[in-house]
Amino acid sequence: MAVKDKSLLSLSWPLVVTFGIGMSLPMLDSWFLSKRSVEAAAGVGALMPVIGTLFMAIQAFAQAGASIASQFLGGDRPRHAQVTQTLVIAGSAVLGLAMGVMLWFATPAIVARMGLSGEPADAAIKFLHTISPAIVFRALQGTLTSLVATHGHTVWNLFANVIALIVNVVLNVIFLGGHFGTPPFMQGVYGVAIATGLSWIVSAIVLWIIVVYSLEHKTKLKDIKKGYYLLLPEWLRIGVPAAVEPVSFQLFQVFVMAMFVRLGDAGDASIVASRVFAGVFAMFAVVLSVGLGSGSQILVAHLVGNKEFDKANKRMHQSLVWSSASAFAVAIAVALTGQYLLAFYTEDPAILRLGGLLLWCDVALQPFKAANIVITNALRASGDSAFPAVFGTISMWTLGLGTTLFLCFGIELGAVGLWLGMASDEFYRSIANYTRWRRGKWKSKGVIR
C-alpha cells in the first residue's frame, strides 16, 4: 500500500510511542539525578530548553528534507528521493558536529545567562560538557527517524527507540549504583550524561542499519554533489524557515525558564524545581500531538507530491481534531493525578502544591499547542514553511512575551502567569496558522511543479 493511502492511525501510533520514549529520556535523567540531589536535577532540567533549541533546529532541517523526499515519493520520483535522503543525512551530520562543538565552548556562558549558581549550575555544566560530543549522533538519530517515517515504516523507529530506552535505563542503574567497578566520578551527573550519550549512539547505529538494509538506501558521494547543486536550494527554502520557528520557540522557553529562576531567586527556591518537574509531566500531552502531527505531515507531503490537495486538507483536519482533543484529555488526566506524579520526584509540599497548580494551567495550553504542531507540520510538509516561521517569531516575541510579562509581573500571578503566558502564545499562533492554511496558498509551494 502506498504511504499516502495509509490511515493516520497506522502511521501515527508508532510515532506516538516513539516520541513518548524520546521524551521520557530527559524524565529518566531528572529522576535518576533527583535520587542523588533535587538541586542537581533542577539544574540539569533548567537547561533542557537550551538542549531542546539545538535539537529542534536539527530536527526541523531533517523534517524539511524528509518532506521533500516524501513529495518525490508521492510523485513517483524515487531517484530524486534517494538523492534527497543522502544530502539530508550528510548535512545533518555536519550540523550536529558543529552544534556539539558550539555547545562545549558556550556551556559556561549559557549557565550564567540562565542565572543558575551553586550545585544546580555545577550539575548543568557537567551534563552539557559530557553530552556535547554525542550531539552529532543525536542529530543523526533524529534525521534517520524522519527518513524512515517518510517511507511509512514507523514501527522500525519504535524498535530503535525502545533499544535506546533500554540502554539508557540499564547504564543509569549500573553507573549510579556503582556496579561492575564503576568509578566514583560516574556515580552522579557524569554517569547520567554518559548513559544518555551512549543511548543516542546505539539508536543512531540501529537506525542506520534499518535505512541501509530495510529501505535499501545507498549513500553515494556523487549524490551529495548532485543534491548540493539541485536540491540544496529547495532544502534551504523550506528548512531555514522551518528551523527558525522552533528555535525561536525554544529560545522563548529559555527566557521563560530564566523568569522562573528569577522568581526563585526572589525567595522561593522551590519554583524552579516545580517548573522542571511539572514540565516533565506536561510533556505527556505533547507526545500525542507530536505523533499525530508527524503522521499527518508524512501523509500531507505524499499527497501534495501527487497533487491530491483535497485529500491533504482532509488529512490535516482529521489530525487537528484528534490531536487537540486528545491533548486536552491527557492534560486533564495529568492535572487530576498531579500530586501523585510529582511525588515520583519529591515529597516537598511547596513543590507539590505549585507543581500541581502549574499542571492545571497546562490544561489551557495543550489544545492550542496541539493545533500549532499539526497545522505548522502540514504547512512545512507542503513547502509553505515561511509563514509560520515569520509570523510565529514576531508573535512570540511581541504578543506572547507581552502577555507573559503582564500576567507574571503586571498583575503579579508569578509562576502561574508565566505558564498562562505560554498558553496565550500558542493561542495566537494557532489561530494565525489555521487562517493561513484555510487560504490555500500552501497548494503552490511544493517542490514538484
- Radius of gyration from CA coordinates: 21 Å
Structural class: mainly alpha
Number of helices: 16
Instruction: Give unreliable regions as ranges.
Output: none
The percentage helix is: over 70%
Separation of the first and last Cα atoms: 25 Å
Count every beta strand, where a strand is a DSSP E run of 2 or more residues: 0
Query: What is the string of helix and strand elements?
Result: HHHHHHHHHHHHHHHH
**What spatial form do the alpha-carbon principal axes imply?**
globular
Tell me about the largest β-sheet: none
**What is the arithmetic mean of pLDDT?**
80
Structure commentary:
With 449 residues, the chain is mostly helical. The protein has helices at 8-34, 38-46, 48-74, 78-113, 118-131, 135-150, 154-177, 189-213, 221-230, 232-265, 270-305, 309-336, 338-342, 349-381, 386-410, 415-439. It has one domain (3-444). The radius of gyration is 21 Å and the shape is globular. The model has no long low-confidence stretch (mean pLDDT 80).
Question: In short, what is this structure?
Answer:
With 449 residues, the protein is mainly α. The protein has helices at residues 8-34, 38-46, 48-74, 78-113, 118-131, 135-150, 154-177, 189-213, 221-230, 232-265, 270-305, 309-336, 338-342, 349-381, 386-410, 415-439. The mean pLDDT is 80.
Write the layout of secondary structure elements.
Layout: H1 8-34, H2 38-46, H3 48-74, H4 78-113, H5 118-131, H6 135-150, H7 154-177, H8 189-213, H9 221-230, H10 232-265, H11 270-305, H12 309-336, H13 338-342, H14 349-381, H15 386-410, H16 415-439
